[in-house]
Structures are given as structure tokens and as C-alpha cells.
Amino acid sequence: MKSVRNRSTSQAAPLSSVEIPLVLYCPGCKGGLTKTHEEYRCEGCHRAYPVIGGIADLRLSPDPYISFQDEYQKVGALIEAAKRYDFEGLVRFYWDITPDVPPDLKERYVRYVLGAEARGRAVLEEIDTHAPKQVVGESCLELGCGTGGFLVAAQSRFRNILGIDIALRWLIIGKKRLEASGNAARLVCCNAEHLPVRDEVFDCVVGIHMLEHSQDRHRVVREAGRVLRDNGAYFFSTPNRFSLTREPCVRVWGVGFLPRPLAGPYVRLLKGIPYRHVRLMSAWELRRLFANPPFGQPTISLPRISPAERAMLSRGMKILVSIYHALRRVPVVSTLMRLCAPLLQVRGRKRRTPLNEPPYTT
After folding, report:
1. Most buried among 108, 130, 143, 266, by the most CB within 10 A?
2. pLDDT-based confidence at 5, cuts 50/70/90?
3. What is the count of structural domains for the chain?
4. Cα distance between residue 250 and residue 273, in whole Å
């Protein structure tokens, strides 16, 4: 890809001229994009972005877990496999061609993907519980949408839905899910730190279990605020660093209580697998991340564990979840539980920043 960072004021190419009048811009210079047969090209900086499997790849940097070249090879295999498999078969095929993951984790990851639609519905219910009225609107953006479970759940709320993810391979699988459900959401591969859309275009921004994987979560939050309309709703969830349960990605106890440099060696010692590009946050860190304009006073709360997630747990853990659900409704107890609960969520509304208020800081 060639990059010459000159700003352009030319008209950008629409993502969809019929269903979603969303205009894409160059994530590097915010110049206009022109779509050719197999790519988007920025008329300002002349950077070219390929369209692969019908999905625009507008990334400025690759997924930290895999290089551009290696991912394109895997994506090619997924595109061919999608002609033979249904959605679940495609998910299992992906893990078949990813041999460095232990079998027990593979099956857990498969179940997690298959339960994404149920978790998406639970997220909408959770937002509704605390919102003054049911969150609906013209448009919704999901950051780190993965295989599109929330996008399917959100189609009854929003006319225009955009899902973005840094992992093109997951978007190819997600496209299969959307096609099977008749969902009109659009998928774009890009960095959440550099969103290829203009300011204030979404009524709702959601990020489910993606902040802990972000390379620059401060920039991710700033971008979320930039593209959210005034009074728009935001909702993010993330594992708690100081949870008393096992770390959800690698299923190891006590990872978050260690100094961050020791987490990787500790996981490799116990599990024999790498632990990279994951930065868990505590309730205090999460509040500090959002406690700047335009987010004002974010609300940190304890999420409800969805039935899909409970189905993945042992009998003993299901009993603990029932106790957790009862205790999270008790105000004083829930405040203490935020210190060590498995998951945290932050929600609120964007407010306009007064002219005399200092800009967003990190």
C-alpha cells in the first residue's frame, strides 16, 4: 500500500448506495475514497485499500496476531470453504486450520461464537434496563464485531448497522452469519483507532469484549466519541482484571493479579500457550478511561450473564452465577463486587463539550 498523506476534499464513495448511505473516508488522511473494481483508493494520499470477499480492508496496520500476508492466505481458504459449509461448519473449519490452539480451547471458542447472537440480545436488554427509554435510532456501530452476533440482534433496533473489526478472517465468517439471517448490516475491516467515517454519524456505539485487545484503547475511546452523535448511547463490556474467576481467553486463574510483564510467562508455564496483546482493566481503570469529555460521568456496572454464557459453565459455576445475579441487585454489595466480578460494563450518553471545558486527555 502506498501512502502520501495529503488531505483531500473530494466526495467519498458510499459503502452502500441503497441500504446504508454511509460514506467511507481514508482512515489515514480522512480524504475521500474512490471505489474501483477491487479496491478503494484515496484521492488525497493515494493509499489503496483492497476489497476482499466483498469486504473493504481499510486497515492502517494488521491484526497484531497475524501478518497481512498470512491472514490473506487464511481468508482465501475461508472464502472457498464458505461455498461448502454453513456458518457453524465454517467456524469449525477456521479452527481446523489454526492448529496452535489447544483442543479444549478450540471447542470453547466455537461455543462462544455460536452463542454470540444470544449475548447480543442480552446486551440490548442490559442497555434498555438502564436507559430512560429503549435505545433505538437510525444507526449503530459495533467495534470489534467479530462474527456479527450483536449485529444480528441489533437489526430490529436500527436501520443502518455497521460492524468493524481488525480481523478480516472473522469478518468473512461473520458475513456467512449475516447472509444466513438475512441481515443488512455492513462489514468493514479497519482499526478501531482509525475509523473511516466522518464525525457524529451514529446513534449508538457498542464494544463487546474488545477494549482488552485494543492496541491503543485511549484512541479507541476517542474515536468512539468522535463518531457518536450528541446524546448518543455508548456501551462497552470487558473482563475485570481482578476477577476471582479464570481469565476468559486462556482459562487460567489469577492472571490479572500479577504484574503485567509476568502474565505472559505465567500463562505459558501453566497452559503452554502464548499470552499476548491482552490488557485487562480494573473497574478504576475503566472509569478513568471514560471519565473525560464527551463521556462525562460514565456508569460502571455488573453485567447479567446471558443464558448462552451460562450454558458453557460447569454445574458449580452455574450455582455461583445464580448467587452473583442475586447479589448484583443489592446496591452496597454490587459496589464491592465491582472490585472482583468477572465482567464489567460501562455505559452512558455522549454530551456536548462546553467551549470552556478542556479537551479529552489520557
Report:
1. 143
2. very low
3. 3
4. 8
Angstrom distance (rounded) from CA 244 to CA 257? 9
Cell of 84: 461448502
Q: What is the pLDDT of residues 26-65, one digit of tens each?
A: 999 999 999 987 899 998 999 999 999 999 999 999 999 9
- Helix 283-290 with 217-227: angle, nearest 10 deg: 40
Q: How many CB atoms lie within 10 A of CB 20?
A: 17
Q: Which amino acid is at 106?
A: K
- Full-model pTM: 0.88
Q: Which three cell numbers stand for residue 191?
A: 482499526
Residue 69 neighbours by CB distance under 10 Å: 8
3-state secondary structure 261-314: HHHHHHHHHHHCCCCCCCCCECHHHHHHHHCCCCCCCCEEECCCCCHHHHCCCC
Q: How far apart are CA 213 and CA 236, in angstroms?
A: 13
The verdict on 270 and 293 lying in the same domain is no
For 195, 246, 254, 273, 275, the CA distances from 266, given in Å and listed in that order, are: 35, 13, 9, 10, 9
Query: In angstroms, rounded to a whole number, what is the distance separating the alpha carbons of residues 170 and 164?
Result: 10
Q: Which residue has cell 469449525? A: 92
Which among 325, 116, 274, 134 is positioned nearest to 208, based on CA atoms? 116
The verdict on whether omega for the bond into residue 265 sits within 30 degrees of 0, i.e. cis, is no
Asked if residue 300 and residue 186 are part of one domain, the reply reads yes
CA 115/CA 88 separation, integer angstroms: 11
CATH number of the domain residue 195 falls in: 3.40.50.150
What span, in angstroms and rounded, lies between the C-alpha atoms of 211 and 114? 21
- Quote the domain boundaries for residue 179: 53-240+281-306+342-352
The reply to whether 83 and 224 lie within a common domain is yes
How far apart (Å, rounded) are the C-alpha atoms in residues 304 and 103? 28
If we measure between CA atoms, which residue out of 118, 173, 120, 125 comes closest to residue 146?
Answer: 173
Distances in Å between the alpha carbon of 43 and those of 3, 29, 30, 37, 47?
A: 11, 10, 10, 16, 8
